[in-house]
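Course exercise 7: structure representation. Students receive a sequence record and must write out the corresponding structure in token form. The form below is the worked example handed out in class, using Thymidylate kinase (216 residues). Read each field label carefully; the graders check that inputs and outputs are placed in the correct fields and that the protein name is recorded exactly as given.

STUDENT ID: A-19
EXERCISE PROTEIN: Thymidylate kinase
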Amino acid sequence: MIIAFEGVDGAGKNTLVSAVEQELIAREVAVARAGFPRYEESVHAQLASAALHRNMGDLIDSTYGMATLFALDRAEVGEQLQELSDDGYVVLLDRFTASNAAYSAAREPDTSEQVIQWVADLEFDSLGIPVPDLHILVDVAADVAAERAEQREAEDASRARDAYETDNGLQQRTVVAYRQLAHAQWYSPWEVVDSTDDNVSARAEAIANLITDMRR
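STUDENT ANSWER:
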């Protein structure tokens, strides 16, 4: 199975993915893990990062240009992810195609449905990126996520927020876009978990139970 964890910056995706990974390992389930964008491995992700920090001229202004770079990052490893799934691994992903759809929709609110479909056509059809078997929306209010991202930045200079993360309006619209994708059960089943509190272990156990049941 391929499981994509989605949500805005500061929602707590990485923390939850780690907890679910440990829960599945404890149950002797074979697990593989990846996170996107792959800033350390992918030239496309590195170019996107440069643009997000305003070092690529007006590229940051192009919703479709940025979305294409993020999509190409996934395309580089899409086949490997599918092979891992086919070999029996549960593949846990911190962000995937739905992130591209949600953020692009938030940047183009007047044509959100069209841009979401364009992202799906690009990634799933044109580039052959696998469709996740399950999406987990790590849901949180935009202001809570922003506070977490600011704290993370203050504690770790390497985690400086980028142009998307510092745009509060964009983050709020992205929260809405994610919730709409989840409501529509976009391309596969979606499970929504509220990450407002600190009870990560309970959420991880519930998600591990869901994954176990789906694999039977």
